[in-house]
Design goal:
Strand content: 25-35%
Largest sheet: 3 strands, antiparallel
Low-confidence stretches: none
CATH architecture: Alpha-Beta Barrel
Helix content: 10-25%
Number of domains: 1
Mean pLDDT: 96
Number of strands: 8
Strand order of the largest sheet: 1-4-8
Distance between the termini: 22 Å
């Protein structure tokens, strides 16, 4: 199963350069990296990235993220994947421009 992270262009560039990503300002505030399932990506994009150009969709293998990936209720009670550690660039399965 894959999970996804939407990143602004500057966040993706910093992630690529550093080789890791500790999260956005929202992630830092909440104490985990917010991820989405394929079915949740569009809602996340509409709520947090409206009208933003250059948004990148990062694909991750949920199993490879290990025990620090937790499924917790969020919008509307739906379970969302939350990662309680930094992402590593080597964990990225694919990346593409979104929207």
């Amino acid at each position: 199963m894959f999970v996804y992270k939407l990143l602004r262009a500057d966040e993706w560039a910093a992630f690529e350069a550093a080789g890791s990503f500790a999260g956005s300002a929202d992630d830092g505030r909440d104490g985990f990296i917010h991820l989405s399932t394929a079915e949740q990506v569009a809602g996340t994009a509409a709520k947090y990235f409206p009208g933003e150009a250059g948004t990148m969709l990062v694909t991750l293998d949920a199993d490879a993220l290990g025990e620090k990936l937790r499924w917790e209720p969020s919008r509307g009670g739906a379970l969302f994947p939350h990662l309680y550690r930094a992402l590593r660039r080597t964990e990225v399965v694919a990346v593409e421009r979104y929207g």
